[in-house]
Design a protein that fits this description.
This protein is α/β, with parallel strands linked by helices. It contains 10 helices and 9 strands. Strand 7, helix 7 and strand 8 form a beta-alpha-beta unit.
Length: 257
Amino acid sequence: MAADSVLVLSIDWELEIQHSDPSREQCLDTLRPQLLSMLHRYEIPATWAVADPRMSVATESILTAAVGHEIAVLGDRSWIGPGAGRTRLGRELFRRFDAARHAGIPVHTLATRNVATVADTDLLIAHEVRAVRNPPVASASQARRQPAAPLRYGIWQAPPALLIPAPGAWWMPASWPLKSEINRTIARRGTLHLAIDAVQLVDQGTSALATLESALKHAAARRETGKLAIRTLGQLAEQALAARGSVPTRSILRAAA
């Protein structure tokens, strides 16, 4: 019997353009195998958001991992913001989605980080975007209070995402707040969406990574008891769209391995 409660993990993997720094890029390259190994250890799939799936050095290692990770496009205000315009948005969607799929990279999810909404929904549909994740919030209580967005025009809106690691009293170098959120999600039979900021994870060092691992180990243990399912954003979108009759039985979204 499928669990009623769901944990979904998304990972924002790129530096913002204005914060480009070769030393931090190197730190991300060092972190990636550590994080992939951790997720493999607990058999947890995640949605990894990169700026351009064809160009990212992370894409191959993510897709060849054995736990069913998903690649998403990480969008920012430079090309999806209000001032970017439809022409540039369409061009960037083609480059980051259509061209990536032509290269054999299954990508249908857009994760945004510094822009609240994408107004030109018709362009998202034209370029086969099936799921959108809005920028994460830093407060666990705020994430719980935000209502789930409706399914509109064949595009699924991801549940409100909680930023990890985040400023604020609830985040600390101990895993119990995250474990409590997981337990709370199970108790209310809900969905918990954790959005990892890889750059902040690097900046906060080994204590933040250890905190995350302890929480993921806890989640994996709850999954083994049948109390929790762990899914990618693409899998949740596929389920929601199929329930509405918006996708065929053989979904274009990448199934987990």
